[in-house]
Each structure stands twice: as structure tokens, then as C-alpha cells.
């Protein structure tokens, strides 16, 4: 079974093709919010390099967020179009779960994505055998509120651009309790989305491509402005 996986949650756009337990190829590029121009050419270049076509894919996996509103819409819309056109199954994966999946450690894993205004999208995860278990569901929190929660844990590891942005205050408040991931594990990777998508597919957990939508966790700026106007 061949899987095409995408993650456009952040400025790092990434796509990968897997064949069951083998990674056939992965393409990651920091595109500075040009996903609409670069994503499909990236996918085509990767597939061409592997001698494959979109119709050869058996399963599509896509990161649902949280993250960039525009980026998420582009990634989800692309996968929905492919799945609809070729009538293939699709599985949506939390970006935070994908980030946590990068880290095969026994520590408490805390992925963080910058949500601006000193807030981060985050969750808390831990490996139990071969399964990544969710301890705290994805949420958007002020960094100080999150650190108060994390202070009760003895050992944890952080990854994601939110961890990079707030590294100093995280280190200041958590001290020796916290470890930061290496650069290669610090950004969203389509291979993690693909592995999780295959796992959930094998468990019978697929999504309807008609109703699949991003998981924003908060209102977009346009939605907030509309609501504020309506409340006046």
C-alpha cells in the first residue's frame, strides 16, 4: 500500500510517499507561506522522481492542524481533491500528534506550535509500548499557563517552532526537567503523518473526504473581526 502524506500546518511544507513500512521519499521546504504556489509542484516532483502518479497512491494522509489557517486549507483541499478524484481513502492527523510522533522517547513529549501573542498550540503525549498516547488533548494556551502545567512532570522533551520561540522562558521555568529536540525532529514531517495515517487506516479509522476539515482550535482573524462587528 502506497501512502501520500502532506503537512502544510506551518511555513514548512512537507510531502512524503511511503510503501507500508518503507519511506520512498520525502520533500520538505520552508516556503514562507507560499504553499499555494509550491505544494502541488512539490508533490509532482516527488512522484516523478519515484516513477509514480497520483492515481498510484492507495491512501492519503494529511495534517489537520492546528497551525496556519491558509496553509491548512491548502493542504486539506489538495488531499480532498486527490481522494475524490481517485476515490481513495483519506486519514486526517493532528499536527501536534505528528510532531510528537517525531520523538521516539520515553519522556513526556510536548510539541509546541507558535500561536502568536505568547500563546502556543500544544498537547501532551507519551509512548506506551508502540502506541503514542495522548495525555492532554490539543489546545491553545498562554506559554506561562502551559509551563505551570508542565512543572509537575519530572522529565519532558519539547519540539516545534513554539519551543524554539519560547526556549528561554521554558528553560528558565523548567530547568533540568526539560530537553529540546534536535533540529531534524523539530519541524513537521510528512513521514510522521504518513505512518500515523497508515496506523489509523489499519484500525479502521478513516475520514470522509467530503466532510474532512482543518482543526483550527481558534477563530481566524477574519472570523474574529466579523464576530466583533456583529456584537457591536
Description:
By secondary structure, the protein is of the alpha/beta class. Helix content is 37%, strand content 31%. The protein is built from eight helices and ten strands. The strands form two sheets. Strands 3-2-1-4-5 form a five-stranded mixed beta sheet, sandwiched between helices. The protein has a five-stranded mixed beta sheet with strand order 8-7-6-9-10, with helices on both faces. A hairpin with a 2-residue loop joins strand 7 and strand 8. Helix 3 packs across helix 7 and helix 4 runs parallel beside helix 6. The protein starts with a strand and ends with a helix.
Please state the CA-atom Rg, rounded to the nearest Å.
18 Å
- Mean of pLDDT: 91
Major β-sheet, in short? 5 strands, mixed
H/E series: EEEHEHEHEEEHEHHEHH
Distance between the termini: 54 Å
Tally of alpha and pi helices: 8
The 3D shape can be described as: globular
Order of strands across the main sheet: 3-2-1-4-5
Uncertain segments of ≥5 residues (pLDDT<50)? Answer: 219-224
**Strand element count:** 10
- The level of helicity is 25-40%
Amino acid at each position: 500500500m502506497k501512502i501520500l502524506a502532506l503537512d502544510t500546518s506551518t511555513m514548512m511544507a512537507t510531502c512524503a510517499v511511503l510503501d507500508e513500512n518503507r519511506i520512498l521519499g520525502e520533500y520538505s521546504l520552508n516556503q514562507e507561506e507560499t504553499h499555494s504556489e509550491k505544494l502541488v509542484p512539490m508533490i509532482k516532483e516527488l512522484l516523478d522522481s519515484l516513477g509514480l502518479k497520483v492515481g498510484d497512491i492507495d491512501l492519503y494522509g494529511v495534517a489537520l492542524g492546528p497551525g496556519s489557517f491558509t496553509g491548512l486549507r491548502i493542504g486539506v483541499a489538495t488531499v480532498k481533491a486527490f481522494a475524490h478524484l481517485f476515490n481513495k481513502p483519506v486519514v486526517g492527523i493532528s499536527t501536534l500528534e505528528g510532531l510528537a510522533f517525531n520523538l521516539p522517547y520515553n519522556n513526556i513529549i510536548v510539541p509546541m506550535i507558535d500561536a502568536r501573542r505568547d500563546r502556543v498550540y500544544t498537547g501532551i503525549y507519551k509512548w506506551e509500548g508502540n502506541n503514542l498516547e495522548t495525555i492532554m488533548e490539543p489546545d491553545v494556551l498562554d506559554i506561562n499557563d502551559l509551563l505551570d502545567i508542565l512543572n509537575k512532570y519530572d522529565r519532558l522533551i519539547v519540539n516545534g517552532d513554539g519551543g524554539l520561540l519560547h526556549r528561554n522562558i521554558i528553560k528558565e521555568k523548567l530547568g533540568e526537567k526539560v530537553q529540546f529536540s534536535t533540529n531534524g525532529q523539530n519541524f513537521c514531517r510528512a513521514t510522521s503523518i504518513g505512518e500515523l495515517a497508515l496506523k489509523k487506516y489499519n484500525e479502521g479509522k478513516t475520514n470522509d473526504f467530503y466532510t474532512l476539515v482543518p482543526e483550527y482550535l481558534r477563530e481566524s482573524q477574519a472570523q474574529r473581526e466579523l464576530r466583533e462587528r456583529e456584537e457591536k
